[in-house]
Amino acid sequence: MHKSSVLWRAAWPSLGRLAAGLDAFAPATAEVVLALLEHYQLEVEGEHVVVVGRSTVVGKPAAHLLLDRNATR
Fold it and tell me: Quick check: 52 and 23 in contact, CB under 8 A?
């Protein structure tokens, strides 16, 4: 994605807000991770959760979303 595109510019503020624990739009791929956990009724609150990978599209946002649901590292 070219850095001048609207999606590129909108993504970075959302990732910063997500990291700060504020309301934000997470990347769809990270949201799917949480949707799968909910679909299979897997509770993450208080559980030790490991996210393999630290990409800005999946890994980091998924980790922040899981932390927002009180999963631990």
Answer: no
Please list, in sequence order, all residues whose beta carbon lies within 8 angstroms of the beta carbon of residue 59, skipping any fewer than 6 positions away.
51, 52, 53
Q: What is the pLDDT of residue 2?
A: 52
What is the pTM for the complete model shown? 0.76
Give the Cα-Cα-Cα angle 6, 8, 56 (nearest 5 degrees). 155
Cross-strand partners of 72: 48
Query: Is 68 in contact with 61 (CB distance < 8 Å)?
Result: no
Residue 51 has pLDDT above 90, yes or no: yes
Name, in order, each residue with C-beta under 8 angstroms of 38's C-beta and a sequence gap of 6 or more. Answer: none
pLDDT of residue 14: 78
The upper half-sphere exposure of residue 6, i.e. CA atoms within 13 Å in the direction of its Cβ, equals 0
